[in-house]
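[Discussion] Sanity-checking designs against the backbone

I'm trying to build intuition for which residues belong where. Below is a C-alpha coordinate string of 406 positions. I'd appreciate it if someone posts a full sequence so I can compare it with mine line by line.
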Protein backbone atom coordinates (compact mmCIF):
# COMPACT_ATOMS: atom_id res chain seq x y z
CA UNK A 1 0.00 0.00 0.00
CA UNK A 2 1.02 3.61 -0.63
CA UNK A 3 3.31 4.78 2.20
CA UNK A 4 1.25 7.99 2.46
CA UNK A 5 -1.87 5.99 3.32
CA UNK A 6 0.00 3.88 5.87
CA UNK A 7 1.14 7.09 7.58
CA UNK A 8 -2.43 8.43 7.46
CA UNK A 9 -3.79 5.23 9.00
CA UNK A 10 -1.19 5.44 11.77
CA UNK A 11 -2.23 9.04 12.42
CA UNK A 12 -5.90 8.06 12.74
CA UNK A 13 -5.16 5.20 15.15
CA UNK A 14 -2.26 6.59 17.18
CA UNK A 15 -3.38 10.24 17.41
CA UNK A 16 -7.09 9.90 16.66
CA UNK A 17 -8.82 7.18 18.67
CA UNK A 18 -5.73 5.85 20.55
CA UNK A 19 -7.25 2.54 21.72
CA UNK A 20 -6.25 1.51 25.22
CA UNK A 21 -4.80 -1.91 25.95
CA UNK A 22 -7.68 -4.38 26.06
CA UNK A 23 -10.26 -1.88 24.79
CA UNK A 24 -12.68 -2.82 22.03
CA UNK A 25 -12.95 -0.68 18.88
CA UNK A 26 -15.89 -0.12 16.56
CA UNK A 27 -15.20 1.21 13.07
CA UNK A 28 -18.03 2.55 10.94
CA UNK A 29 -17.04 2.65 7.26
CA UNK A 30 -18.49 2.63 3.77
CA UNK A 31 -17.65 0.03 1.13
CA UNK A 32 -15.31 2.38 -0.74
CA UNK A 33 -11.88 1.68 0.79
CA UNK A 34 -11.84 -1.87 2.19
CA UNK A 35 -8.05 -2.24 1.94
CA UNK A 36 -7.53 0.93 3.97
CA UNK A 37 -10.11 -0.21 6.54
CA UNK A 38 -8.28 -3.53 6.94
CA UNK A 39 -5.04 -1.62 7.54
CA UNK A 40 -6.70 0.45 10.27
CA UNK A 41 -8.11 -2.71 11.87
CA UNK A 42 -4.64 -4.28 12.00
CA UNK A 43 -3.12 -1.12 13.50
CA UNK A 44 -5.81 -1.07 16.22
CA UNK A 45 -4.88 -4.64 17.16
CA UNK A 46 -1.18 -3.74 17.20
CA UNK A 47 -1.97 -0.87 19.57
CA UNK A 48 -3.58 -3.35 21.98
CA UNK A 49 -7.27 -3.43 21.06
CA UNK A 50 -8.89 -6.65 22.27
CA UNK A 51 -11.50 -6.75 19.49
CA UNK A 52 -12.13 -4.61 16.41
CA UNK A 53 -15.55 -4.69 14.80
CA UNK A 54 -16.31 -3.07 11.44
CA UNK A 55 -19.85 -1.81 10.97
CA UNK A 56 -20.04 -1.55 7.17
CA UNK A 57 -22.33 1.16 5.79
CA UNK A 58 -23.78 1.50 2.27
CA UNK A 59 -25.65 4.70 1.41
CA UNK A 60 -27.51 3.26 -1.65
CA UNK A 61 -28.88 0.48 0.57
CA UNK A 62 -29.80 2.99 3.26
CA UNK A 63 -31.59 5.01 0.58
CA UNK A 64 -33.64 1.96 -0.42
CA UNK A 65 -34.75 1.59 3.17
CA UNK A 66 -35.92 5.20 3.18
CA UNK A 67 -37.76 4.72 -0.11
CA UNK A 68 -39.52 1.43 0.65
CA UNK A 69 -39.93 1.05 4.41
CA UNK A 70 -43.01 2.53 6.06
CA UNK A 71 -42.58 5.48 8.38
CA UNK A 72 -43.73 3.25 11.22
CA UNK A 73 -41.01 0.69 10.49
CA UNK A 74 -38.33 3.39 10.13
CA UNK A 75 -39.42 4.82 13.47
CA UNK A 76 -39.14 1.51 15.30
CA UNK A 77 -36.12 0.60 17.41
CA UNK A 78 -35.87 -3.15 17.73
CA UNK A 79 -34.97 -4.85 21.01
CA UNK A 80 -31.63 -5.98 19.59
CA UNK A 81 -30.77 -2.37 18.74
CA UNK A 82 -31.49 -1.29 22.32
CA UNK A 83 -29.38 -4.20 23.59
CA UNK A 84 -26.49 -3.06 21.39
CA UNK A 85 -26.78 0.52 22.66
CA UNK A 86 -26.83 -0.74 26.24
CA UNK A 87 -23.73 -2.86 25.62
CA UNK A 88 -21.90 0.10 24.12
CA UNK A 89 -22.82 2.41 27.02
CA UNK A 90 -21.50 -0.16 29.51
CA UNK A 91 -18.43 -1.35 27.59
CA UNK A 92 -17.36 2.05 26.16
CA UNK A 93 -15.47 0.94 23.05
CA UNK A 94 -13.49 3.49 21.06
CA UNK A 95 -15.36 4.67 17.94
CA UNK A 96 -13.94 5.53 14.53
CA UNK A 97 -16.00 6.88 11.63
CA UNK A 98 -14.33 6.68 8.20
CA UNK A 99 -16.54 8.96 6.13
CA UNK A 100 -16.77 8.51 2.35
CA UNK A 101 -20.43 9.41 1.81
CA UNK A 102 -21.83 10.70 -1.46
CA UNK A 103 -22.96 14.31 -0.74
CA UNK A 104 -26.02 13.75 -2.97
CA UNK A 105 -26.62 10.20 -1.83
CA UNK A 106 -30.04 10.80 -0.31
CA UNK A 107 -31.49 12.98 -3.05
CA UNK A 108 -35.00 11.92 -4.03
CA UNK A 109 -36.18 10.47 -0.73
CA UNK A 110 -39.04 11.85 1.39
CA UNK A 111 -36.93 13.95 3.75
CA UNK A 112 -39.93 14.76 5.92
CA UNK A 113 -40.57 11.06 6.47
CA UNK A 114 -36.91 10.53 7.34
CA UNK A 115 -36.89 13.42 9.81
CA UNK A 116 -40.07 12.23 11.55
CA UNK A 117 -38.63 8.73 11.90
CA UNK A 118 -35.44 10.11 13.43
CA UNK A 119 -37.44 12.22 15.86
CA UNK A 120 -39.47 9.16 16.88
CA UNK A 121 -36.33 7.08 17.52
CA UNK A 122 -34.33 9.71 19.35
CA UNK A 123 -36.00 9.59 22.82
CA UNK A 124 -35.03 5.91 23.12
CA UNK A 125 -31.46 6.55 21.94
CA UNK A 126 -30.81 9.63 24.06
CA UNK A 127 -30.38 7.94 27.49
CA UNK A 128 -27.58 5.75 26.10
CA UNK A 129 -25.94 8.68 24.35
CA UNK A 130 -25.99 10.71 27.56
CA UNK A 131 -24.58 7.76 29.52
CA UNK A 132 -21.58 7.61 27.16
CA UNK A 133 -20.96 11.36 26.99
CA UNK A 134 -17.25 12.21 27.50
CA UNK A 135 -16.43 8.64 28.60
CA UNK A 136 -14.76 7.22 25.49
CA UNK A 137 -12.45 8.16 22.64
CA UNK A 138 -13.84 8.80 19.18
CA UNK A 139 -12.59 10.10 15.87
CA UNK A 140 -14.00 11.05 12.47
CA UNK A 141 -11.73 10.97 9.41
CA UNK A 142 -12.33 10.88 5.68
CA UNK A 143 -11.49 8.38 2.93
CA UNK A 144 -12.47 8.84 -0.73
CA UNK A 145 -15.59 7.35 -2.25
CA UNK A 146 -16.03 7.48 -6.04
CA UNK A 147 -19.29 9.48 -5.92
CA UNK A 148 -17.81 11.93 -3.42
CA UNK A 149 -14.61 12.28 -5.48
CA UNK A 150 -16.59 12.96 -8.65
CA UNK A 151 -18.58 15.65 -6.84
CA UNK A 152 -15.41 17.42 -5.69
CA UNK A 153 -13.45 16.88 -8.91
CA UNK A 154 -15.91 16.63 -11.84
CA UNK A 155 -14.86 16.05 -15.42
CA UNK A 156 -12.07 13.55 -14.82
CA UNK A 157 -11.97 9.75 -14.64
CA UNK A 158 -13.05 7.95 -11.48
CA UNK A 159 -9.48 6.89 -10.70
CA UNK A 160 -8.12 10.40 -11.17
CA UNK A 161 -10.88 11.92 -9.05
CA UNK A 162 -10.21 9.46 -6.23
CA UNK A 163 -6.46 10.13 -6.38
CA UNK A 164 -7.07 13.89 -6.30
CA UNK A 165 -9.37 13.49 -3.30
CA UNK A 166 -6.82 11.32 -1.49
CA UNK A 167 -4.22 14.06 -2.01
CA UNK A 168 -6.63 16.74 -0.76
CA UNK A 169 -7.57 14.66 2.30
CA UNK A 170 -3.93 14.07 3.22
CA UNK A 171 -3.10 17.76 2.80
CA UNK A 172 -6.09 18.83 4.88
CA UNK A 173 -5.18 16.33 7.59
CA UNK A 174 -1.55 17.54 7.85
CA UNK A 175 -0.71 13.92 7.03
CA UNK A 176 2.25 14.49 4.73
CA UNK A 177 5.92 14.45 5.75
CA UNK A 178 5.66 13.36 9.37
CA UNK A 179 1.94 13.19 10.20
CA UNK A 180 2.21 12.35 13.89
CA UNK A 181 4.91 14.96 14.54
CA UNK A 182 2.82 17.51 12.61
CA UNK A 183 -0.14 16.80 14.88
CA UNK A 184 1.88 17.00 18.06
CA UNK A 185 2.97 20.52 17.03
CA UNK A 186 -0.56 21.37 15.86
CA UNK A 187 -2.08 20.31 19.18
CA UNK A 188 0.39 22.49 21.08
CA UNK A 189 -0.39 25.49 18.86
CA UNK A 190 -4.16 25.12 19.29
CA UNK A 191 -3.83 24.78 23.06
CA UNK A 192 -1.69 27.94 23.22
CA UNK A 193 -4.48 29.87 21.48
CA UNK A 194 -7.23 28.41 23.68
CA UNK A 195 -5.25 29.46 26.76
CA UNK A 196 -5.08 33.04 25.45
CA UNK A 197 -8.81 33.14 24.76
CA UNK A 198 -9.75 31.66 28.11
CA UNK A 199 -7.78 34.31 30.01
CA UNK A 200 -10.10 36.99 28.61
CA UNK A 201 -13.25 35.26 29.95
CA UNK A 202 -15.40 36.90 27.29
CA UNK A 203 -19.10 37.36 28.00
CA UNK A 204 -19.97 37.74 24.32
CA UNK A 205 -18.62 37.76 20.77
CA UNK A 206 -19.64 40.13 17.96
CA UNK A 207 -19.40 39.10 14.30
CA UNK A 208 -19.44 41.45 11.30
CA UNK A 209 -18.80 40.81 7.60
CA UNK A 210 -19.54 42.65 4.36
CA UNK A 211 -21.81 39.80 3.21
CA UNK A 212 -24.42 40.87 5.76
CA UNK A 213 -23.37 38.96 8.86
CA UNK A 214 -24.12 41.17 11.87
CA UNK A 215 -24.42 39.05 14.97
CA UNK A 216 -23.79 38.89 18.72
CA UNK A 217 -23.69 35.73 20.82
CA UNK A 218 -23.52 35.44 24.61
CA UNK A 219 -21.09 33.08 26.34
CA UNK A 220 -21.44 31.28 29.64
CA UNK A 221 -19.51 32.83 32.55
CA UNK A 222 -17.99 29.43 33.27
CA UNK A 223 -17.56 28.63 29.59
CA UNK A 224 -14.17 27.82 28.10
CA UNK A 225 -12.68 27.41 24.64
CA UNK A 226 -11.25 24.06 23.56
CA UNK A 227 -9.77 22.49 20.46
CA UNK A 228 -7.69 19.74 18.89
CA UNK A 229 -6.66 17.09 21.43
CA UNK A 230 -9.28 16.27 24.07
CA UNK A 231 -9.29 14.08 27.18
CA UNK A 232 -12.17 11.86 28.27
CA UNK A 233 -13.28 11.41 31.87
CA UNK A 234 -10.91 8.46 32.25
CA UNK A 235 -7.96 10.66 31.33
CA UNK A 236 -7.46 9.17 27.86
CA UNK A 237 -6.34 11.70 25.23
CA UNK A 238 -7.59 11.58 21.64
CA UNK A 239 -8.16 13.79 18.59
CA UNK A 240 -11.86 13.62 17.69
CA UNK A 241 -11.60 15.19 14.23
CA UNK A 242 -8.94 14.66 11.59
CA UNK A 243 -8.61 17.29 10.20
CA UNK A 244 -9.29 19.91 12.88
CA UNK A 245 -8.33 23.57 12.70
CA UNK A 246 -11.01 24.90 15.04
CA UNK A 247 -11.03 26.43 18.48
CA UNK A 248 -14.57 26.20 19.77
CA UNK A 249 -16.85 26.97 22.67
CA UNK A 250 -20.49 26.43 23.54
CA UNK A 251 -22.53 29.66 23.76
CA UNK A 252 -25.14 30.27 26.42
CA UNK A 253 -28.52 29.07 25.24
CA UNK A 254 -30.93 31.91 24.55
CA UNK A 255 -28.27 34.60 23.98
CA UNK A 256 -27.90 35.20 20.25
CA UNK A 257 -29.11 38.16 18.19
CA UNK A 258 -28.77 39.13 14.56
CA UNK A 259 -28.03 37.67 11.15
CA UNK A 260 -25.55 34.99 10.12
CA UNK A 261 -24.87 34.59 6.39
CA UNK A 262 -23.34 31.27 5.32
CA UNK A 263 -20.21 31.40 3.16
CA UNK A 264 -20.18 27.77 1.99
CA UNK A 265 -22.87 25.24 1.04
CA UNK A 266 -23.97 22.76 3.69
CA UNK A 267 -24.48 19.06 2.99
CA UNK A 268 -27.01 17.76 5.53
CA UNK A 269 -28.40 14.24 5.48
CA UNK A 270 -27.78 13.89 1.76
CA UNK A 271 -29.29 17.27 0.83
CA UNK A 272 -27.31 20.31 -0.27
CA UNK A 273 -28.23 23.71 1.20
CA UNK A 274 -26.77 26.72 -0.63
CA UNK A 275 -26.69 30.52 -0.33
CA UNK A 276 -28.47 30.62 3.01
CA UNK A 277 -28.80 32.82 6.06
CA UNK A 278 -30.23 32.44 9.56
CA UNK A 279 -31.65 35.23 11.72
CA UNK A 280 -31.73 34.90 15.51
CA UNK A 281 -33.86 36.55 18.18
CA UNK A 282 -33.52 35.76 21.91
CA UNK A 283 -31.09 33.01 21.02
CA UNK A 284 -33.43 31.23 18.62
CA UNK A 285 -33.35 30.87 14.84
CA UNK A 286 -36.58 32.59 13.83
CA UNK A 287 -36.02 32.99 10.08
CA UNK A 288 -34.08 30.92 7.54
CA UNK A 289 -33.58 31.65 3.84
CA UNK A 290 -31.85 29.48 1.25
CA UNK A 291 -31.51 29.74 -2.53
CA UNK A 292 -31.38 25.93 -2.59
CA UNK A 293 -32.45 23.52 0.13
CA UNK A 294 -34.98 25.75 1.90
CA UNK A 295 -37.07 22.72 2.89
CA UNK A 296 -34.05 20.94 4.36
CA UNK A 297 -33.06 24.02 6.34
CA UNK A 298 -36.57 24.35 7.74
CA UNK A 299 -36.63 20.65 8.67
CA UNK A 300 -33.31 21.00 10.41
CA UNK A 301 -34.45 23.67 12.85
CA UNK A 302 -37.68 21.74 13.50
CA UNK A 303 -36.01 18.46 14.50
CA UNK A 304 -36.74 19.18 18.17
CA UNK A 305 -37.51 22.13 20.41
CA UNK A 306 -33.82 22.98 20.92
CA UNK A 307 -32.67 22.53 17.32
CA UNK A 308 -33.12 26.28 16.55
CA UNK A 309 -30.62 27.23 19.30
CA UNK A 310 -26.84 27.32 18.95
CA UNK A 311 -24.54 24.65 20.36
CA UNK A 312 -21.15 25.81 19.09
CA UNK A 313 -19.10 28.83 18.04
CA UNK A 314 -15.87 27.83 16.27
CA UNK A 315 -12.96 30.07 15.32
CA UNK A 316 -10.73 29.16 12.37
CA UNK A 317 -8.16 31.32 10.61
CA UNK A 318 -9.03 31.87 6.95
CA UNK A 319 -5.42 30.92 6.16
CA UNK A 320 -5.99 27.35 7.34
CA UNK A 321 -4.51 24.62 5.08
CA UNK A 322 -8.00 23.58 4.02
CA UNK A 323 -9.17 27.06 3.07
CA UNK A 324 -5.96 27.75 1.19
CA UNK A 325 -6.62 24.72 -1.05
CA UNK A 326 -9.74 26.52 -2.29
CA UNK A 327 -11.60 23.21 -2.59
CA UNK A 328 -15.25 22.76 -1.68
CA UNK A 329 -15.38 19.25 -0.18
CA UNK A 330 -19.18 19.05 0.22
CA UNK A 331 -18.39 17.44 3.60
CA UNK A 332 -18.88 19.19 6.90
CA UNK A 333 -15.79 17.51 8.38
CA UNK A 334 -13.61 19.38 5.88
CA UNK A 335 -15.58 22.49 4.99
CA UNK A 336 -16.15 23.41 8.65
CA UNK A 337 -12.38 23.44 9.13
CA UNK A 338 -11.91 25.91 6.29
CA UNK A 339 -13.58 28.82 8.06
CA UNK A 340 -15.26 30.06 11.21
CA UNK A 341 -18.55 28.33 11.78
CA UNK A 342 -21.52 27.95 14.09
CA UNK A 343 -23.54 24.86 14.92
CA UNK A 344 -27.23 24.53 15.55
CA UNK A 345 -28.30 22.05 18.20
CA UNK A 346 -26.41 20.17 20.87
CA UNK A 347 -23.64 21.91 22.78
CA UNK A 348 -20.53 20.46 24.42
CA UNK A 349 -20.33 19.72 28.13
CA UNK A 350 -16.52 19.94 27.88
CA UNK A 351 -16.85 23.68 27.17
CA UNK A 352 -17.78 24.34 30.80
CA UNK A 353 -14.93 24.72 33.28
CA UNK A 354 -14.69 21.65 35.55
CA UNK A 355 -17.57 20.06 33.65
CA UNK A 356 -16.83 16.69 35.24
CA UNK A 357 -18.17 18.01 38.57
CA UNK A 358 -21.66 18.53 37.18
CA UNK A 359 -24.46 16.32 35.93
CA UNK A 360 -25.72 16.68 32.39
CA UNK A 361 -28.85 18.41 33.69
CA UNK A 362 -26.78 20.84 35.75
CA UNK A 363 -24.76 21.74 32.65
CA UNK A 364 -27.98 22.33 30.73
CA UNK A 365 -29.05 24.71 33.50
CA UNK A 366 -25.80 26.64 33.03
CA UNK A 367 -26.68 27.20 29.36
CA UNK A 368 -25.45 24.15 27.38
CA UNK A 369 -28.04 23.44 24.70
CA UNK A 370 -29.32 19.87 24.35
CA UNK A 371 -30.71 18.59 21.05
CA UNK A 372 -30.77 15.53 18.82
CA UNK A 373 -28.86 17.44 16.12
CA UNK A 374 -25.51 19.17 15.90
CA UNK A 375 -25.13 20.78 12.47
CA UNK A 376 -22.17 23.02 11.60
CA UNK A 377 -22.50 25.77 9.02
CA UNK A 378 -19.74 28.01 7.75
CA UNK A 379 -19.69 31.80 8.18
CA UNK A 380 -16.00 32.66 7.81
CA UNK A 381 -14.76 35.11 5.17
CA UNK A 382 -11.65 37.11 4.31
CA UNK A 383 -13.15 40.24 5.86
CA UNK A 384 -14.81 38.71 8.93
CA UNK A 385 -14.28 40.69 12.11
CA UNK A 386 -14.87 39.13 15.54
CA UNK A 387 -14.72 41.24 18.67
CA UNK A 388 -14.73 39.78 22.17
CA UNK A 389 -16.48 41.64 24.99
CA UNK A 390 -15.00 41.02 28.44
CA UNK A 391 -16.90 40.93 31.73
CA UNK A 392 -15.77 44.56 32.21
CA UNK A 393 -17.05 45.57 28.75
CA UNK A 394 -13.57 45.88 27.27
CA UNK A 395 -13.59 45.24 23.52
CA UNK A 396 -10.82 42.93 22.28
CA UNK A 397 -10.07 42.26 18.62
CA UNK A 398 -10.17 38.48 18.21
CA UNK A 399 -10.33 38.28 14.38
CA UNK A 400 -9.54 40.93 11.81
CA UNK A 401 -9.71 40.31 8.06
CA UNK A 402 -10.58 36.69 8.70
CA UNK A 403 -7.46 35.93 10.76
CA UNK A 404 -6.41 35.86 14.39
CA UNK A 405 -5.79 39.26 15.95
CA UNK A 406 -5.01 38.21 19.52
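Best answer:
Here's mine. Compare freely.
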Amino acid sequence: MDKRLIEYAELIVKMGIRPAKGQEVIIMAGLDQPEFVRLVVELCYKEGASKVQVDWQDMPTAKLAQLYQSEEKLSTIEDWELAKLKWRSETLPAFLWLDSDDPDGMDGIDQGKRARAQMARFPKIKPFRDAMENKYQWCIAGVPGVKWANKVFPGVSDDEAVEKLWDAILTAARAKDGAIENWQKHNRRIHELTDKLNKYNFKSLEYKSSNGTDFRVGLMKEGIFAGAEETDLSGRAFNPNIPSEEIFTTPEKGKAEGLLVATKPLSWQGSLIEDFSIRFEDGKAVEVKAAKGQDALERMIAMDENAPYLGECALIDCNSPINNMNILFYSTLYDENASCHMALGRGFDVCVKDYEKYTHDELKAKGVNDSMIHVDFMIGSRDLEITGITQDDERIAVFRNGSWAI
